[in-house]
């Protein structure tokens, strides 16, 4: 069984920084793409940042230049460094990963439980 566990959320003032972590554990053969999504109250879940297994990255326009996604394949962990935070960044942040539990089988999509990020003005 595969689990994604996020950590690092919290309350911060506007202009501050937070670093989110997401560790994958369990029966894992391959982790392909990993990403961070967020969902604010009353809004749809949206992609924040994405990183491929080869570390190619992509960001939502709203976070470009402020957020940095990275991964440590040896630790099965993805990070999101969030700087210059704004009140509109307030949301529950979810980790996502495409994981193969056997190398010869198609990957499945896994999600973490979410971590709250609140930015006060």
Write structural notes for this entry.
The model has no long low-confidence stretch (mean pLDDT 96). Helices cover 0% and strands 56% of the residues. The protein is mainly beta. The strands form two sheets. Strands 2, 4, 5, 6, 9, 10 and 11 form a seven-stranded mixed beta sheet that branches. A four-stranded antiparallel beta sheet has the order 1-3-8-7, with no helix packed on it. The relative contact order is 0.33. A hairpin with a 6-residue loop joins strand 4 (30-39) and strand 5 (46-51).
Q: Which descriptors apply to this entry?
A:
121 residues; mainly beta; 7-stranded mixed beta sheet; 4-stranded antiparallel beta sheet
Instruction: Summarize the amount of helix as a percent range.
Output: under 10%
What distance separates the N and C termini?
A: 41 Å
In oligomeric terms, what are we looking at? single chain
Tell me about the largest β-sheet: 7 strands, mixed
Number of strands: 11
Class inferred from helices and paired strands = mainly beta
Low-pLDDT segments, ≥5 res: none
Radius of gyration: 14 Å
Counting H and I runs of at least 4 residues, what is the number of helices? 0
Note the overall shape: elongated
Query: Taking all residues together, what is the mean pLDDT?
Result: 96
SS strand fraction? over 45%
What string gives the helices and strands in order? EEEEEEEEEEE
């Amino acid at each position: 069984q595969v689990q994604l566990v996020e950590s690092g959320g919290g309350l911060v003032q506007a202009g501050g920084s937070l670093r989110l972590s997401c560790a994958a554990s369990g029966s894992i053969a391959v982790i392909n793409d990993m990403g961070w999504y967020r969902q604010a109250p009353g809004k749809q879940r949206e992609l924040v940042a994405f990183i491929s297994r080869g570390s190619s990255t992509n960001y939502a326009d709203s976070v470009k230049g402020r957020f940095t996604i990275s991964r440590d394949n040896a630790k099965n962990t993805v990070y999101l460094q969030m700087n210059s935070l704004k009140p509109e960044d307030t949301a529950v942040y979810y980790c996502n990963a495409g994981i193969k539990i056997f190398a010869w089988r198609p990957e499945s999509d896994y999600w973490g439980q979410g971590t709250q990020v609140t930015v006060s003005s």
